[in-house]
Amino acid sequence: MMDWTDRHCRFLHRLLTRHSLLFTEMVNSGAIVHGDAERHLRFDDVEHPVALQLGGSDPAELAEACRIAESFGYDEINLNVGCPSDRVQSGRFGACLMAEPELVADCVRAMRDATDRPVTVKCRIGIDDQDTEESLDRFADTMVSAGVDALYVHARKAWLKGLSPKENRTIPPLDYPRVYRLGARLAPLPTMINGGIETLEAAAEHLGHMDGVMLGRAAYHNPMLLAEVDARFFGDTRAVPDLAAIMAAMADYAEAQQRQGARLNAIARHMLGLANGRPGARQFRQIMSVDACRPNAGPEVFARALDAVERTPLPAAV
Ligand SMILES: Cc1cc2nc3c(=O)[nH]c(=O)nc-3n(C[C@H](O)[C@H](O)[C@H](O)COP(=O)(O)O)c2cc1C
What we know:
Layout: H1 7-16, E1 22-28, H2 29-34, H3 37-41, E2 50-55, H4 59-72, E3 76-81, H5 86-90, H6 101-114, E4 119-124, H7 134-145, E5 150-154, H8 176-186, E6 191-194, H9 200-207, E7 212-214, H10 217-221, H11 229-234, H12 243-259, H13 264-268, H14 281-290, H15 300-311
Parallel strand pairs: 1-2, 2-3, 3-4, 4-5, 5-6, 6-7
Helix pairs in contact: 4-6, 6-7, 12-15, 14-15
Residues 1-4, 25-26, 53, 80, 82-83, 122, 154, 169, 194-197, 215-218 line the site of flavin mononucleotide.
């Protein structure tokens, strides 16, 4: 998620789930091909499996970005056909491409020719006044004939005229049944559903209809949700680290990253929700957000935040 997630966030999420596929935020293919690829693509081996999400609509440039990405070891390459930002529309990529399935298909073909990794697409159920039955089927069929390996569908339209990107994540209504119908129609192509899924109970229900579930905001704001994913959905019942172990692992990680020039806050900002629902969570968030920004702040901030949770008594039972 642009401006939210990054490799530090993925490092944290990987401590909580060994099996979930993690995604990068969208990276413009031009920034990889013509810019600082190392800065955009470098990641830690422990983050695997990781999908790189590309934004773009120039088949040759996307193909080149795939070649570069493959050399960095990404496990999957995903093309964004869902982002509604103006910045993105003016560059002719993101959700506006839902109106140009043939161009997206050319991109997918070029990407598949350039890499052995699975090439997938993330889209909406439609844009603006598109008929979500007819145009989504046409879009998806065009992707299938281009050889796409899987589709991720955000179960709402993007309204490109009149809504901000933020509004486009809440205002257009969710239509899960439409995505289920698409999944059934495209089977055996793997199809994943996304949008407004906030609990693992809800995820389990969707998995009755779909091959996978993608979580965005819920996983970001409430990362501990991920701690139950492996046991519940992947049959891996190995123990997951508790809050104290996560804070210790993140402190070691932060120390190493700070030696390479990272700021503590760049890591701490992804950890604010770790204590949600526990007594002391407010103080935890405050220490992690305020103290981590101070000049010379080091990983001892994490120990202090943990202490605030461990020292806060549970409310008395009534
Ligand atoms: C701050 C922010 C940035 C986002 N950036 C991306 C992005 O880079 N690529 C993408 O495919 N979706 C992006 N999204 C959309 C999410 O991936 C997801 O489709 C959307 O939030 C709905 O799912 P959710 O309700 O589980 O969050 C972003 C969402 C937010 C809140």
